[in-house]
Amino acid sequence: MNFDYTLYLVTDSTLCPREELPAVVEQAIVGGVTVVQLREKDCSSRVFYETARRVQEVTRRHSVPLLINDRLDIALAVDADGLHIGQSDLPAAVARRILGDGKLLGVSAGTVEEARQAVADGADYLGIGAIFPTDTKEDADAVGVEGLRQIRAAVDVPIVGIGGLKEHNLPLLQGAGMDGIAVVSAIVGQQDPRGAAQQLCRALEGVLRT
Amino acid sequence: MNFDYTLYLVTDSTLCPREELPAVVEQAIVGGVTVVQLREKDCSSRVFYETARRVQEVTRRHSVPLLINDRLDIALAVDADGLHIGQSDLPAAVARRILGDGKLLGVSAGTVEEARQAVADGADYLGIGAIFPTDTKEDADAVGVEGLRQIRAAVDVPIVGIGGLKEHNLPLLQGAGMDGIAVVSAIVGQQDPRGAAQQLCRALEGVLRT
Question: DSSP letters along A43-75, please?
């Protein structure tokens, strides 16, 4: 599988009601989003499953990969393109074993040690963050541009920066070796998700690893 | 697989701290519990996984099956003996497909219609309840003894009654066709889980289907 990580959308049902999510995701894809991660907390497995199916209807129509956050069972149930897990989720090696090699596995890492371990455990790409302080994840310690460079130097897999990334601070990340950026509120919290995605794409020119 | 549903323990970390769970489960097994369902809400996937591994160390040592509540991914990750799902969890047919035929699938049902659908979807047994009103599940409408009889008449698979079952009300269920009873607070909320299980076993004499 060849994934384009350029503009990676992570959903958040506290910023966008679930019933509006398919439409918002579609607008974001039209605006330039290249991969979608469905993240749901505080809902039943049934609601997660049904939301994933509705969002997948959109991502498939636009040939954009859909990844599921945390819940390997939901990823399997809807035959998603992959799974993204954090350090509080299933161990990456266990997730890799159950998921099989045909699906994408992403792992969140905030340090060089976590990044190396994730790759050893089978991660296809890393979500590195929070790059800058953010309101979405309260407990996230910022990695910063220097931390990002160190992780980039330590591992070979694609790296997606996440956390506090906005149009205005993307130029700070030029040359840091990211393969893409992941955003939550910069798209799903916006009145015009399509326009927001378009502006982020423009702001990304020259920032990512080529 | 031949399962003995006689005394089916469902855990609850609000009644028993997770670190004490393996010891409490062990005492309950020594007292007569024949199957254990690990139910965790409001914890990370990692904590659920690690708790399951610790409880499984006990259940395997005593050759008692361990089922996981709701989370098919945790069941797969620890290679549990099966999965128990409710009406707000993954659809039973989807769970059955991913779980495979070698594992036990239990489904909660509160009506004849839910019970028939669950069996059609591949349930190996049904958890029927709440039989009597209970504090553990706030939204549970009581099925009652008559409801239990109707479900018993409608399906062939083993039936485990759950919800509000205590030593003193078990005689009311004689002849209703249950294969076992599931309890939460009647064991995990007790100071002496082993003694509580023993007393429940005694009170079950003549109550279950033979």
Answer: S-HHHHHHHHHHHHHHHHHTT--EEEES-HHHH
